[in-house]
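Re-run requested by the PI after the first attempt was lost when the workstation crashed. Everything re-entered from the original request form. Ligand of interest: S-adenosylmethionine.
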Amino acid sequence: MFDAIAPRYDLVNRIMTFRLDVRWRRKAIRSLKLTPGSLILDLASGTGDMCIDLRKAGYQALSMDLSIGMLIADRSNAPRTQTDILKLPCADNSVDGVTCGFALRNLLDLNIFFAELSRVTKKGGRIALLDVGIPTNPFIKWGNSIYFGKVVPRIGGLFSNRAAYNYLPKSVAYLPAPSKMVEMLSQNGFVEVEHHQLSGGLTQMLLATKA
Ligand SMILES: C[S@@+](CC[C@H](N)C(=O)[O-])C[C@H]1O[C@@H](n2cnc3c(N)ncnc32)[C@H](O)[C@@H]1O
């Protein structure tokens, strides 16, 4: 599915989020608060948006994704690897930080993923994870469900692949509750675990420090 949507992935993202996706990624990168030159793994890197901004922020970035279509469309020039991010081809304690944008809901087992993040991140290293959210305000929640349920599949169908953009909004149902994800990160060796709602909860961000 991701191979199929890769060529127009950026265009559809910008249209369907009114460019808010760019802001959300930059906020996640600012929240890392690591020293310039730190090595950051961007997991499920897609077309490389996060890597581009990581490099602009002065970090060294590595891009990893399972979809060869996405990796081909990656414009970041960061070194890239095709891999399943549930089994990272990285040594223990080898990176200063990890980012992951909008992929948590696609992973088969978040506990395995968080354990892998903990394994590869150095002590004191930081992680910043983004995914779509479910707004708590009933009015925003209602508008968001109509927008994602009815409008996004049409935008996707018009510019890319309707079936994929039917599935993607629904896949938010696979995400555990925020409090559960915070607990899972704490149980996997992270401290200072924070959950933030961005843009009224349209997107959620998890931040944590490796103990
Ligand atoms: C919605 S896209 C997000 C792309 C990018 N991070 C962004 O911020 O736009 C989800 C990405 O997760 C990747 N993905 C899903 N499951 C994966 C896995 N098990 N291992 C590696 N990448 C995976 C897909 O190939 C796709 O590129």
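Saved to the shared folder this time. The beta strands are 39-43, 60-65, 80-82, 95-101, 121-132, 190-198, 203-210.
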